[in-house]
Structure prediction request, 144 residues.
Amino acid sequence: MKYRNGIFVIVFRKNKSKYEYLILKRKLHWKGWEFPKGGCKKGEDYLRCIKRELKEETKQSPLSIISFNKKGKWKYPKELSDRKNFDGQSWRLFAAELKNKNIKIDKREHEDYSWKSYSEAKKILTYKNQKTCLKLVNDFLKKL
Prediction:
């Protein structure tokens, strides 16, 4: 099986003394709530991929990026026309802080966005691996 190399980014902002997490409502390839993610282009390192994906999906640049020792992969449920050479995607977890500004989503991939508290985000996320990664990042940020 051939997996597309990618990133999974939990985007956060600090609002007063609490953290809030950006979730995006997906409409391309599947429907549900997720964090920014994407595939790395050929020759692109993780840092460049994160910056590019965040610019594409939020129109913002990260204030900081944190790398986590967590990775995984998923198999595409069907062949995707824009990813014909891949059976699925592998990912590595990162967190990124964004400014407390409005997000401008890519309307081709997402139809909405929302800033949520940890407990709100955990309830609305679509997949278990998203919730597991959110907990890992939230536990880390609480220690800062």
The two ends are 39 Å apart (CA to CA). The beta strands are 3-15, 18-26, 32-34, 37-39, 64-75, 88-97, 110-116. The chain has one domain: 3-142.
